[in-house]
Amino acid sequence: MHAITIPEPGGPEALVWDEVPDPVPGAGEVLVEVVAGAVNRADVLQRQGFYDPPPGASPYPGLECSGRVTALGSGVSGWSIGDEVCALLAGGGYAEKVAVPAGQLLPVPDGVDLVTAAALPEVTCTVWSNVFMISHLRPGETLLVHGGSSGIGTMAIQLAKAVGATVAVTAGTAEKLERCAELGADVLINYREQDFAAEIEKATGGAGVDVILDNMGAKYLERNVRSLAANGRLAIIGMQGGVKAELNIGALLSKRAAISATSLRARPLGEKTAIVAAVREHVWPLIAAGDVRPVVDRTLPMSDAAAAHRVVEESGHIGKVLLTTPR
What we know:
With about 325 residues, the protein is of the alpha/beta class. It contains ten helices and 15 strands. The protein has helices at about 40-50, 120-135, 150-160, 175-185, 195-205, 220-225, 250-255, 270-280, 285-290, 305-315, and strands at about 1-5, 15-20, 30-40, 65-70, 85-90, 95-100, 105, 140-145, 165-170, 185-190, 210-215, 230-235, 260, 295-300, 320-325. Strands 3, 4, 5, 6, 7, 14 and 15 form a seven-stranded mixed β-sheet that branches. A six-stranded parallel β-sheet has the order 10-9-8-11-12-13, sandwiched between helices. α2 (about 120-135) packs across α3 (about 150-160). It starts with a strand and ends with a strand.
C-alpha cells in the first residue's frame, strides 16, 4: 500500500507519499481500507518531531479515518467485511489501509457520506470526553470554547447547544466568528481585538462560565481561571500557547474550581473503547437527527498532505481538512 511517511522531521515537505508494507490486523483488530483521513494539529507536531506515536502504534500520521472493513482479526465480533466505518486511531490514518482495534470503530452515521465521516471520530471523542464525561457540562450552563472555528470548536458549539447550554467562543477573524454564530454560538469574541476575560465578565454579568475547553495552555491559564464561575471546570486539551505558566491556587480555591488536562492518543485501549461507546450512544443520534453535523473546510488528495498541513498551520480553515486516498 501507500502511506504518508516522515523520513526526517521538518516542514510540510517532510511528508512523503511512499510505498510501505500492508498492515496485518492482530487479535481484536479489523483492517480498514481507508477512503479518507483528517488532519489534526497532533499530526503537525508529529511531522515536526515533537509528538511520537505511542508504543505499538502505526508510525504514519493520522488520528482518524473513514473507509470499509476488509479483514477481521481473531476474536472480533459485531463487524463484517464490507461495513462502512469511521475510526479513532493512535496513528496510521494517512494511508490506504490501517489496522484498528474493534473498540475504536464507529458506523458511518445516517445522513453522512463516507468521506465526510472521516471528520468525526477525533473531534466527537475529544469533545464528548472532555466537555461531558470529565467536565459534566449541563443544560443551562455556559461553555467557553477557544478556537471556536476549528474542527473541535465547531463540534463543541453544536454539542453544547444540543444539550441546552449557552456557548461563548473565541476566534481570530470576523468570518470565523460568523460561522460560529451560524452553528449556534451566543457570545462571539475576537481574540485579536478583545480581551476574552473582560468580554466574558461583561457577557455573564461577572458570574463567569461553567466550563472552558482550552487549546492554548500556558498563555491563557490565568485568564481562564479568572473567567471561571464558582465550581467551574477548565479542560485543557492543547498547548499552542506554551506549556509553563504560574497558577494562582488561591483564585482556584476561592472558586472551588477544577482543572483537567488530557490527551486522547495515548490513552489505554479500554478508555478509548469507553469513550467511543459513549459517543456512539450520545452523539450519533444527534448527527442522524441533523442536530449536529461535521464541518469540512476542504478535501485534498492524501498525496498532497503537505498542502493540507500548510492550511492547518496557517489557521486558514474552518472545521476539518480532509485527505482522500486514490480511487
